[in-house]
Write a structure and sequence with these properties.
The protein has 2 domains: 136 residues, 3-Layer(aba) Sandwich (Rossmann fold), CATH 3.40.50; 181 residues, Dihydrodipicolinate Reductase, domain 2. 33% of the residues lie in helices and 23% in strands. With 329 residues, the chain is an alpha/beta fold. Strand 3 and strand 4 form a beta hairpin.
Length: 329
């Protein structure tokens, strides 16, 4: 099992290598891949050193699986070349997510859709993954009509430049800016670029990807995505209107029984999810589960996850694990 990690020297790429090692993914040969400026650099994986190679070399090595986290342009240009060479690509960028012939996968929800013919598989956006993981079992039982989501997103979603900006601002030193404004002691109501409708790309990803993953275009979704000076993970306040009524204790039970979800919901002991505790973990944490008393059949929840792990690297590797376990690569 030859596995290429494209973008191995980036923030998500480094977490991918960590998760591959932790989960003991069956690799016989690791191929770390990065841009030309990183070629020849050494990375360590499971105590062994590997030299970073370029994309052309990686394609010629014909890995069984290529895990991509190198940005949309790289994915659009190179994923088809890997696929043509017989490699199954699992792509973490937004490049392929909304292509009609590409599957958008959260393994706990829709991995069963995958076949041997799927040579380019899309990994959803980090903020979408954590939300749909909690909503999918509730949609099955109560049928979702509308979702209102406000996100509080970690700077790690922007990348290493944003982490550096926050550290510089903490220290009171000037440096390169990842954002138009300071992020220290601030909240920026813009994640990604604005689209023509006044929403950001991040907000529209929550709309479009949710409908695609849950296979239901009738679900109305509206989102506001905010960047906050947090390193540990993304948090989301989610308001969900169902077609039918529900019992809050049943909701807790359904979520408690859902693989990948940890319910932290006890106001008596001040137990609720926070990025501080989600950091470095693969689960999605759900709490503050309560009825919206302003209208019928509506629920409020607070959902937190580490955006670099379940929101990116871990979900990608879980897709790869499914492919291997089911003989699809």
């Amino acid at each position: 099992m030859k596995v290429a990690v494209v973008g191995a020297t980036g923030m998500v790429g480094e977490v991918m290598l960590q998760v591959l090692a932790e989960r003991n993914f069956p690799i016989t040969e690791l191929i770390p891949v990065a841009s030309e400026k990183s070629v020849g650099k050494e990375i360590e994986f499971k105590g062994k050193k590997y030299s970073v190679v370029g994309l052309e070399t990686a394609v010629s090595m014909k890995p069984e699986i290529a895990l991509f986290s190198a940005g949309g342009e790289t994915s659009l240009a190179w994923a088809p070349k890997f696929a043509k060479a017989g490699t199954t690509v699992i792509d973490n960028s937004s490049a392929w997510r909304m292509h009609a012939d590409k599957k958008l996968i959260v393994p706990e929800i829709n991995a069963s859709e995958l076949t041997k013919e799927d040579k380019i598989i899309a990994n959803p956006n980090c903020s979408t993954i954590q939300m749909v993981l909690a909503l999918a079992p509730l949609h099955k039982k109560y049928n979702i009509k509308r979702i209102i989501v406000s996100t509080y997103q970690s700077i790690t979603g922007t990348g290493v430049k944003a982490v550096q900006q926050l550290e510089n601002e903490y220290a009171g030193t000037k440096g390169e800016m990842a954002y138009k404004y300071q992020i220290h002691r601030n909240a920026i109501p813009q994640c990604d670029v604005f689209e023509d409708n006044g929403y950001t790309k991040e907000e529209m990803k929550l709309v479009r990807e949710t409908q695609k993953i849950l296979s239901d275009k009738t679900i109305a979704v509206t989102a506001t995505a905010v960047r906050v000076p947090i390193v540990g993970g993304h948090s989301e306040a989610v308001n969900v209107e169902f077609s039918t009524d529900f019992d809050v204790n049943d909701v807790r039970k359904i979520l408690h029984e859902t693989p990948g979800i940890v319910v932290q919901d006890n106001t008596d002991t001040f137990t609720y999810p926070m990025p501080l505790y989600a950091h470095g973990k693969d689960d999605v944490f759900v709490g503050r589960i309560r009825r919206d008393e302003s209208q019928p059949n509506t629920l409020n929840m607070w959902i937190v996850a580490d955006n670099l792990r379940k929101g990116a690297a871990t979900n990608t590797i879980q897709i790869a694990e499914y492919l291997v376990a089911n003989g699809l690569v």
